[in-house]
Amino acid sequence: MIFEHLIKENRQAFTEKVKDVCVYLGIDPDWIMLVMWFETASTLDHRIVNKTSGVTGLIQFMPATVRSLGTTTGQLRQMSNVEQLDYVKRYLAPYRGRMDNWLDVYCAVFWSAAIGKPDDYVIKSDKVARQNPTLDINKDLDIHKWEIRQALLNSIPKQYKHLFE
After folding, report:
1. CATH number at residue 31
2. In total, how many domains does the chain have?
3. Please, are residues 116 and 108 in contact by the beta-carbon 8 Å criterion?
4. Strand ranges (E), 4-130
5. CA angle 6, 72, 26 (to 5 degrees)
6. Would you say 40 and 10 are in contact if contact means Cβ atoms under 8 Å apart?
7. pLDDT by residue (tens digit) across 143-160?
8. Helix, strand, coil percentages in the chain from 3-state DSSP, rounded to 5
9. Residues 65-114: pLDDT tens digits?
């Protein structure tokens, strides 16, 4: 599984849980590992917090999102990486059967309306584009699905690119 070497705590339990979650969701474990790696600024640190927005954890949960899942960002930070995977699973469960590739998994986390849409699908939100400048490659304050794909592909280390192209 990609990025396994970055897991600092509970590596064996974490990778086993990732595989279990992925079997349930019907997705490739490398897909969710890529999403968690990207969302945690290439660290897989489950305690990471965006100081500006307050998003937290393995998939950068928004405070309102974790409340809807029955917890808080503070509680999420106190969980182990293995425990946090239960919330990743619960968050992604409604998209089960709709995530046909790694980009759909990322879209489930970032902008679920883009799941299954073509690459010319556009997120028309200046606010979202300003908060996610890495994804607005052409800097037009719209985020096209092709830009999301390209931004993630650009970030992937060379030795893993073949898994996602």
Report:
1. 1.10.530
2. 1
3. no
4. 122-123
5. 55
6. no
7. 999 999 999 999 999 999
8. 55, 5, 40
9. 999 999 999 999 999 999 999 999 999 999 999 999 999 999 999 999 99
